[in-house]
Design a protein that fits this description.
Number of strands: 18
Keywords: Aminoacyl-tRNA synthetase, ATP-binding, Ligase, Nucleotide-binding, Protein biosynthesis
Enzyme class: ligase
GO biological process, one term: asparaginyl-tRNA aminoacylation
CATH class of the largest domain: Alpha Beta
Distance between the termini: 37 Å
EC number: 6.1.1.22
Structural class: alpha+beta
Pfam families: tRNA-synt_2 (PF00152), tRNA_anti-codon (PF01336)
Bound molecules: 4-amino-1,4-dioxobutan-2-aminium adenosine-5'-monophosphate, magnesium ion
């Protein structure tokens, strides 16, 4: 066996009849005919078919998901994936697999039980690669625009998004919480770095069992000094479009594995996204869909789905009723009933992928709003300090990584957009 193993994708791009190659990976499929044994091997880069004579003892013995090294000469074969197969001369079994528990037609719940094994499926491998590209695109987007990466603490003494969804952690003799958002700390960071971003785990004890909610997810957040609502919404649109462009550049093969319509992703990457207000959104729901939503009520699943359908590309919705918004979202001085905030809604039922706002600079108002929601203000004193020493207008938002990945991949549940999902009911393995 030669010591140089090629990634399968590279071996296939050689596309040269008779060229000797060696690859290593895992047995993806095996089919035995009278005189031949076909073995499809996968590695992280792709799959290739190898054919051995039935007399080959190793080929006969090898099982699905065994790890193997094999070598032979490339041979053109239209029926093989990639157009070439390996005419195998040597097969070495590295780790012989027991009968693999995952076959065809298994339930979603079973696949979650054996997630540690299902991860290696072509389906999840494609999603994980797209997720990798999305995160890379986010870093590139912000760094190329002069933002600094700023890491938040994960253990926090306070809530950012309401006490109801906090996870408690015993912290020596104290109680702390897992972070719900880096935002409050980011608002301190901008006084040093002005424009910052991060990609970090986020925790919410969400009782919702929807296909769009996890209790541990990754949020990609940004915060910028001197920035107001009209500008921050444009940053969010540019970010989403640049993620889509990067996926189109790097992940066409993966989109194909997932059966995703590339034309649709091209449309999302190309077309401009509109900005409308909450009040205008209610008007669309009423006129087009005959849905009467009382002004002041939050948009629910159905409403967001219909708005996504109406626009066909992501849409930004601003100026939600202040009463239903977090304490840090400021009132619009021109219309105090509404807050200077926004959500971005994705089409195809993926709903809210981004949430953000300008930040209030009025500490007294924020204290008042927190108290009204029944929260203490003592642990936020450091945060209110930020309003005392050179306060500036500033804004930021968070993008839900798994929702964006699920949308791009066209998968029905965010659980498949993360390696080991955590929800109320699902926390193993
Ligand atoms: O709208 P959210 O709650 O906003 C914040 O937390 C702000 N503090 C962010 C900021 O301004 N820096 O969450 C932001 C995004 C949502 O739009 C959604 O995409 C995602 O995070 N998200 C979730 N994703 C999966 N599971 C959950 N339970 C999620 N909750 C929010
Ligand atoms: Mg939100």
């Amino acid at each position: 066996m030669p010591e140089k193993f090629l990634p399968i994708k590279e071996a296939l791009t050689l596309a040269k009849e008779g060229k000797k190659v060696a690859v290593r990976g895992w047995v993806y499929r095996k089919r035995e005919l009278k005189e031949k044994i076909f073995i499809v091997v996968r590695d992280s880069s792709g799959i290739i078919q190898a054919v051995f004579p039935s007399s080959d003892k190793q080929a006969e013995k090898v099982t699905i998901e065994s790890s193997v090294k094999l070598s032979g000469a490339l041979k053109k074969d239209e029926r093989a994936p990639g157009g070439f197969e390996i005419s195998g001369t040597k097969l070495e079994i590295v780790g012989l697999a027991e009968i693999f528990p995952i076959g065809k037609d298994l339930s979603d719940e079973f696949l979650l039980d054996v997630r540690h094994l299902w991860l290696r499926s072509r389906h999840l491998t494609a999603i994980l690669k797209i997720r990798h590209t999305v995160v890379g695109a986010i870093h590139e987007f912000f760094r190329s625009r002069g933002y600094y990466e700023f890491d938040p603490p994960i253990l926090t003494p306070t809530a950012c998004e309401g006490a109801l969804t906090l996870f408690q952690v015993k912290y020596f003799d104290e109680i702390m919480y897992l972070t719900q958002s880096w935002q409050l700390y980011a608002e301190a960071g901008i006084f040093a770095l002005e424009k910052i971003y991060d990609v970090a785990p986020t925790f919410r004890a969400e009782p919702s069992k929807t296909a769009m909610h996890l209790s541990e997810f990754w949020m990609c957040e940004m915060e910028a000094a001197w920035m107001e609502l009209a500008e921050v919404t444009e940053v969010a649109k540019d970010e989403v479009r640049s993620i889509l462009k990067k996926v189109l550049e790097e992940c066409k093969d993966e989109l194909k594995v997932l059966g995703r319509d590339v034309k649709l992703i091209e449309k999302y990457a190309r077309e401009p996204y509109k900005t409308i207000t909450y009040t205008e959104a209610l008007k669309i729901l009423k006129e087009k869909y005959k849905m009467k939503i009382e002004w002041g009520k939050d948009l629910r699943t159905k409403e967001e789905e219909l708005l996504g359908e109406h626009f066909g590309v992501p849409v930004v919705i601003t100026h939600y009723p202040k009463e239903i918004m977090a304490f840090y979202k400021p009132r619009d001085p021109k219309d105090p009933k509404v807050a200077l905030c926004f959500d971005m809604i994705a089409p195809e039922g993926y709903r809210e992928i981004v949430g953000g706002s300008e930040r209030s600079t009025d500490a007294e108002q924020m204290k008042h709003d927190l108290k009204k929601k029944g929260a203490g203000t003592g642990d936020y004193e450091w945060y209110f300090d930020l309003r005392k020493y050179g306060s500036v207008p500033h804004s930021g938002y968070g993008l839900g990584l798994e929702r964006v990945v699920a949308w791009i991949c066209g998968i029905k549940d965010v659980k498949d957009a993360i390696s080991f999902p955590r929800t109320m009911k699902r926390f193993k393995p």
